[in-house]
Amino acid sequence: MPDATGGWDWDTLFKAIRAQGALSIIAHPRGLPNPAYFQQADGMEIYDMADTMRDQIVYAPRALLDFAFAYADYPEEFFIPLVERPNWNLVQWDSITKDRRFVGLAGNDAHQNLRIFGRQVDRYDLVFRALNMHVLAPSLTMEHLIAGMREGRCFAAFSLLADAAGFQFVARDRDTGELRALLGQELKMQEGLVFEVHSPIPGSLLLLRDGIPVQREEGRLLRHAVERSGVYRVEVSLKVVDRWRPWIFANPIYLRA
């Protein structure tokens, strides 16, 4: 929606998106021309496959050599170096969620338009398998999926490493085990709260408060007795050969004072 000068009328654009019941997600956040747009959007990309692919392949000589000699026989393994922690994006996301709910999504950014040495790098069949969003929803309707993403009932996972189905991040009552909140939900600080993280396979489970790590466990379960309010989110990593690779990025539970 261009304005009188031919540029984008961002205020009108955000209003039009909301009027349609849709979500406004900031893609490629590091290239955002005006940081104020973060305040008008519903969420942001915390990871973008195409951005990382271009950084790793186009600008890394080692990646180019691997691509030239190994990609034809081991295309999925070639994607593993793309599984990196998006540090800048996470810092930005954490700073915004301190003030308001702000959903974090990961984007495949699949265009199948990157060729090197005559070979297609970003094949659809690989890119769509490499990274997925998991949404907690009662059914696979557009309405329920958008509601799940809007409320942050979702997490990103690098399915290239493993299937993340079955991951859980919840808040429970310490004594009764009663469910108090799912990821994405907001809760008032109260006595006897415990955060639980369940991973479908063993990994490194990290709980962060306002972007700062507060507890790490290796295995399939992390339990944390809550003592302070804050914005709590979870990252899970898997060990690939001799290095921990990020696997899951979950939206926060907002524990307000």
What's a concise summary of this model?
This protein has 257 residues and is α+β, with helices and mostly antiparallel strands.
Which helices and strands occur, and which strands form pairs?
Layout: H1 10-19, E1 25-26, E2 43-48, H2 49-58, H3 61-70, H4 75-78, H5 87-97, E3 103-107, E4 115-116, E5 119-120, H6 124-130, E6 132-135, H7 142-150, E7 154-157, E8 168-173, E9 179-182, E10 186-188, E11 193-209, E12 212-225, E13 230-240, E14 243-250, E15 253-256
Parallel strand pairs: 1-2, 2-3, 10-15
Antiparallel strand pairs: 4-5, 6-7, 7-14, 8-9, 8-11, 11-12, 11-13, 13-14, 13-15
Structural class: alpha+beta
Q: Superfamily at the CATH H level?
A: Immunoglobulins
Task: Give the class-level CATH name.
Answer: Mainly Beta
Annotated CATH topology: Immunoglobulin-like
At CATH level 2, the architecture is Sandwich
Helix content range: 10-25%
